[in-house]
Design a protein that fits this description.
By secondary structure, the protein is of the alpha+beta class. This is DnaJ protein.
């Protein structure tokens, strides 16, 4: 007969699967929530996507001026991604695995890194490229039919202006991010090809610190 389990009894650690263990002060486990915009898993309690963030902003918010510490993570990346990350030390977005990014072109991978993980290549089978509209030209502040040279110049100017890494503060960054997405989408619709996103050094005010170590796999 199995022994009774009292109210104070605890399961042996060997019976707990790692994914069911509550990390730090989080009320929910890692993987209990999925961010459809970033396309990554997180914690349902605080909607956070930093897996090794010990302190849950909901249960234990930081005091003014206090900085959250996080364990270093070891991430495996392809050699071409490692070279890009070396040139872009401010990147702190989600790092794609070698299997995820092996089908991305060099331009698409650069765009992902240069946008700090914001612009992820679309991979929808049979997807047709959108036809340019008057609204697309308006987003780029151009008249319909503007020549390619001026189109590219306008795109680059606006992409640099609204690049999220040049903005800080939740409201300002969110506004810039939305405009940045529209600028990229408008240019791609008009130009008919993937837009090359310019590299921008992230602002130091309110910027994030990279918290992982790179391991190159061939």
């Amino acid at each position: 007969m199995a022994p009774a389990i009292g109210e104070d009894a605890k399961l042996a650690s060997s019976t707990l699967y790692e994914e069911n263990v509550h990390f730090g002060t989080h009320l929910e486990v890692w993987g209990s929530w999925y961010d459809t915009e970033k396309k990554c898993w997180g914690y349902a309690c605080c909607k956070g996507t930093r897996q090794r963030q010990r302190r849950c902003p909901k249960t234990a918010p930081l005091a003014e001026g206090e900085v959250e510490e996080e364990d270093d993570l070891e991430v495996k990346v392809s050699r071409r991604l490692a070279e890009l990350l070396e040139k872009n030390p401010s990147f702190c977005g989600d790092v794609p695995t070698p299997d995820q990014e092996k089908i991305w072109s060099d331009v698409e991978l650069r765009n992902y890194v240069h946008s700090n993980g914001l612009i992820r290549p679309a991979r929808t089978k049979g997807q047709q490229k959108p036809e340019p509209t008057a609204a697309d030209w308006k987003v780029l502040e151009l008249e319909p039919g503007t020549d390619p040279a001026q189109l590219k110049k306008a795109y680059r100017r606006l992409a640099l202006k609204f690049h999220p890494d040049k903005h800080h503060g939740d409201k300002d960054k969110a506004t810039a991010t939305e405009k940045f997405r529209k600028v990229v989408a408008a240019y791609e619709a008009i130009a008919g090809h993937v837009a090359e996103i310019p590299a921008v050094a992230a602002t130091t005010d309110g910027g994030q610190k990279r918290r992982w170590r790179i391991v190159v796999v061939d």
